[in-house]
Amino acid sequence: MSFSVFSGNGWAVLVAGVAYFVIGALWYGAFAKPWMAGIGKTQDELQSNPVDYILSLLAEILIAFGMAVALNAFGASGVLEAIFVAAVLWFAFSLLPAIVHYAYEDRTFTLLAINKGYDFAGMVIASIILAVWR
Question: What is the pTM for the complete model shown?
């Protein structure tokens, strides 16, 4: 197999990572009550720490970089191919490991759906941005 690790656009990676982060704010804003119930916390118990937001943003930029590498490796260039690659990676490396952890941690299906739904939406949007903006 012969491919370069990264032949994408650095600005696209940055924008895709920021888009993933923004989706998280919207997603968890929309699902705040069932998410808090799923983790067993109240709004008063949750402390917002700026470091948490910085770490999340950096992680999502790195996820976008990984998506760019995967898109390059798969040779994906169009929107449908980007969605397919994101879906395969999400299923294999996000959803399935989470199912294993949630089973042993006795977490609810609702919490799994909220958390992994966010990852799916973020990965698909990031992948589309990266595929379109080469």
Answer: 0.91
Per-residue pLDDT tens listing for the chain (134 residues): 455 556 678 999 999 999 999 999 999 999 999 999 999 999 888 887 899 999 999 999 999 999 999 999 899 989 999 999 999 999 999 999 999 999 999 999 999 999 999 999 999 999 999 999 87
Q: Give every CB contact of residue 90 below 8 A, 6+ residues apart in sequence.
A: 116, 119, 120, 123, 124
Amino acid residing at 125: I
Task: Return all residues near 120 (Cβ < 8 A) that are at least 6 apart.
Answer: 86, 87, 90, 94, 95
SS3 86: helix
Distance CA 81, CA 110 (A): 29
